[in-house]
Description:
This protein is mostly helical. Helix content is 55%, strand content 4%.
Amino acid sequence: LFSKEERHLVLQTMRKCIDDWTSLIGTEYQPSTISRYNNCYESLQTVIKDFYKKEDITFHELSGEFIDRFEMHLRTVRKLSQNTLTKYMSCFRKFLGLARENGWLELDPLAGKRKRLFRKEETCPTFLTLEELKRIMEKDFSTTRLNTVKDFFLFCCLTGLSYIDVKTLCPAHLYKDNEGKLWIHKARVKIITHKESCTCNVPLLEPALVILEKYKNWNPEDPEGPCFPIPSNQKMNEFLKEIATLCRVNKRLTVHVARHTFATTVTLANDVALQNVSKMLGHSSTRMTQHYARVLDNSIMKDMQDVARVFG
């Protein structure tokens, strides 16, 4: 009476959706997003086979007990952190929403579990202090390779651009204002395909101008091409480990640390308004930038300085 094709199966539906979305990579989806959906699918496939002793199940068969088993699989077998687990559960929730919209699911198997499953833990971004940043700026390395990587890293620290945004930075993204100051005006590569694209709007500090001028004519054959001959992200991170060791920076130095450093040490620590930092970083809202403000807690420090005077 009810053939397999007429019943709406969980894994079958997920597979079809993921295959459809894969064809939209570069326009609607990023490869990392599709990879996460595939990982979620594989984990569900394993747990369904273990819990129900079936190859696939209908949406009506999903239960709260199964959700608990799926959660334990992600925590113990996949060994996911709370925040990564939340991302996987969000992938699964998307398919549950699709099933409810189409009338394939009546009861919500996530009922009573959302607070636990979608709880996000506050993470502390790694960034350089002013002393550590100056230590790298003043260090002169014996190899051209490390000096070049240092320049690119410092440019990211002074502009807040991500790796891909610096790698794709071209003269067309640079402009001078009425006072002759040079700015970077560039749509972020990561979210350029979204309807509301976010744009970095950053005035260049003097040290950043020096670096930009240093590599001005690195590729005479393509003067309108990329401003910097940047190596791969993996190579950058590999060389940054050497730089961290030589500069006595006891932190895991990556290209993305530069973006965190710009948000904290370069801007917010110097009382740049949160809204302006958000615009320079190309964030879609100040809520994303608030993450860095919480790390600094400048208002707490200022209040405690008043208290210190009382007890001074």
